[in-house]
Amino acid sequence: MKTSFNISPYIKGTLQGRQTPDALATDHFLVDERTKLDWMAYVSQVGRVLDFHAVNGSVEGTWESFLLSDVSLLTARIAQTHRVQEYNQFITLYEALKDQEQIHRNKNYLPTLFALGFEVATLIDAWYKMSKQSFAVSSVATFLTERIQTVGITNVSTFYQLYQKLKRKVHFEEPNNLHLLQQLSSVWKFNPLVEIKKQEQNTTEEDLLKQIQKAGQELFQLPSEINRWAAAEFERSLQRKDMPPHIGLMATFFDLFREQQKAINTITKRHLEFYYQSVLQSQKKPALPDHTIVVVELAKGVEKLTLTKGATISGSTVEGEPVAFQVKEDTVVNAAKIARYFTLNFPCDDVNVGSDTMILGTVSNFNEIGNTSWPIFGGGLSTPNWSPQPFTLGWAFSCSDLLLAQGTRSLTIVFTCKSFEAELSGIDFSSLFEIKLTAKEGWHTAAINQVQYQADGQLKFILNLAPTDPSIITYDKKIHGTGYDTTWPICAVTLTDRGKQQFDVLSKWSVDKVSVATDVKGVCDFLIENESGKLPNTAPFIPFNEPLPGSNLYVGGQEFYVKCLTQLDLTIVWDKLPADFQEYYSAYNTYYQEKGDKKQKASLNLTSGSVQEQPILNQSFKAKVYELDGDSWKAVSKEGNNRVEYCLFTEDPTKSVTSAVPQLPLVKNAQKKISLKGPFRFNPQLQVYTGLNNNLREGFFCLSLSSPSQGFGSVDYPIIVSTVTMDNSAALMHNARLVKLHKLPIKPLPAIPYVPKMKGMEVDYQSAQSYPLDATSNFVKWYHLHPFGIEPVPFHEELPKLLPTYPAQAYAYWGVESLAPNNHLSVLITVESKSKSIHKASPDDFIFEYRSAHGWRKMLVVSDGTEGFQRSGEIRLSIPTDIVKGGINLPESFYWLRCGQS
């Protein structure tokens, strides 16, 4: 058996329940409990009032400086000068000043609160000055100098600056010891002049007081640290070989006095024994076998060990007496071990004293038995074993509307909630939230322009993204981390520190729907094609392959078609436009006019009102707009009416078609804007595409050149050139005759047909869409952001909660390695004997759960020897077969259990 396991010598067995209270032990109350440290600290204090008489009999001070010139007496003085009572008073005053109303009502408490903090600095400085009086105590001076320079300067400066900031907002009397800060030693580098930055002037009194409470805690930790060091240094000083004679005699005296002290301390025992035996006539009961818990550590290579009922385990007591225990029942020992320990608790006067927000904590060295302890469910101040950790808490959703590649982008998100109106009074929503979006380089923190809660239960956010902000792209686990199961962009809303204070209110909200509206200007990175293929949008291009009616330009992009667009504006920047098309095409217009006149004269059927070819004017060039709708193209009407033709240049014949053309991508004075009103066909599941193809059912607009019928004159140009040339030849021959006839005019040659060329194109658009969060919704996903990770929330008949909810008031999370499912797990809990009862809890107040593939599930507690964590004992749990490793981003290498306190 000895080769299979070892009994750890560092873990004490716990005796059976209902132990005799410590107060009834005969040696619990002693007449004299003082130690050598107490006596020597007392001697150093007495030296303050004992006069020192010179040889001539005159009084020259006291014995204090002489006594404190020795390291033993100085460290004893420092070690026994505690500030526990003052710290408790500091916290009590803070509790009376927690909110803004209490600050002004109880402002007379503020001088005392700050005086307690300033007193810490003056006390440490007094120790420092004592240590500088003699070279014999240089070790104390060295330590104090290092702690003052490393921690003290910062702590005192921060506390004093917060005092000045609050003083400017709340008028109260100065602390009575403020002037003593001016007398601090130069090592403190104390500067009474405080400069308050502009951005700090808007800090509220409530926020300042929280900072003061934190700074005060850090300030009070410094003397406690010095106390501990001084106590250890005192013990070391008693072992030195160069101890002064008077100190050696004093230490020897206290060693001898210890024997007298032992004799004095027997009075209590003898008195109680007389009372129990002679007065009460109490009889001692026969001894009962003790029960203990044995911790078994398997040797390497041993997977399990069976301890049969009745097997004997032997050992010895602290005094060396042999002792043996028998195993009560057959027990299978395996290698299961708790390897991770986290805590999570919520605001509660008893569990989480001094905090108004959630606290996530990590416990270390929890498998070691020593002098350190920690709160089972976390909370309170840090201990050597437990420390609070930063964490994330909030919610997230994903949908296609969040795809925002570029430009000036405004995003309006509205969460329609079912909340408790009575609990919302006085809440400032502007500072409760932080929003992040999936961007190209990672998560981008968006600028929140406005947060508003409306009476109808709508929580509204307005976000602004500048052109210099990164593109908002679809979720990519390589860039944004794991935890999400979506192909759309994600918007994550997390609670700030102030928001976590409102968790109790916000966690009660249910979300009925999410509405997303976008207003985007200046998109220039999208797909442009004509019949010849793809066209660049970064350089001038010819939009129409042949500038004749029926020639098409295609504009598309995933970002436009995954949203429900309400409006889309195409802003076109034309390159090298004529000053006036009517003048540019004057030769063409003359030709069309003469051609029409000839036709009218040649045909008897034509009247003066017959249709003729129209002249080319500024407003003549038009295009029809279509959108791809399944297998066909559907016409897009203009601004909701039946007009489907859009002018390419201008609709006003009196205006020039040219104007100043700024540089792309930001077009401020565009030459032509075509505004299209929705709704348009869209598909939230539309994947990225690189061009027009037969498989697309949506994703492109088409600008089809529709008028004039002659296009830009490319077909008529050679005919007109030939006609004008022949007419001019005839005119020259006519004008050359000797007979004086009326001279014919020489017609100008037609200009080369203008080839339409775009210098660039931008798209502005608006969209709006609402998503109900129920079982019918397929185009939005909802997530809860837990302190340990991300949890997808499926949609059922019941509406999802805005925030993750926790049935218990506090949790302890245990990560177990080498666990064997379908077995028992025994957990030894050692409770500090001085621990206060947790809510006077009973075992029924705690719930144990395990992590399965379908979330947290309740598990069976076979036995609870701790009676609800009220005393040390063993908790035996039944491990189900469906327990899994990891979950909600908990470390994947462990099985996870949690205990919740209701």
Compact summary:
The protein is of the alpha+beta class and 902 residues long.
Mean pLDDT: 83
- Helices, by number, come to 17
Number of domains: 5
Class by alpha and beta content:
alpha+beta
Please state the CA-atom Rg, rounded to the nearest Å: 44 Å
Shape: elongated
Summarize the biggest pleated sheet.
Answer: 8 strands, antiparallel
Contiguous runs where pLDDT drops below 50 for at least 5 residues: 1-18, 349-355, 658-670
Question: Would you kindly provide a written description of the structure presented here, covering whatever features stand out?
Answer:
Residues 1-18, 349-355 and 658-670 have low confidence and may be disordered. This protein folds into 5 domains: 5-26 and 265-332, no CATH class; 36-260; 336-392 and 804-901, no CATH class; 394-522 and 767-793, no CATH class; 578-603 and 610-616 and 715-752, no CATH class. It is built from 17 helices and 39 strands. Strands 9, 10, 11, 32, 34, 35, 38 and 39 form an 8-stranded antiparallel beta sheet that branches. It has a 7-stranded antiparallel beta sheet with strand order 16-17-13-19-29-23-27, with no helix packed on it. Helices cover 24% and strands 26% of the residues. With 902 residues, it is of the alpha+beta class. The longest helix is centred in the first third of the chain and has 33 residues, at 205-237. The protein is elongated and about 160 Å long.
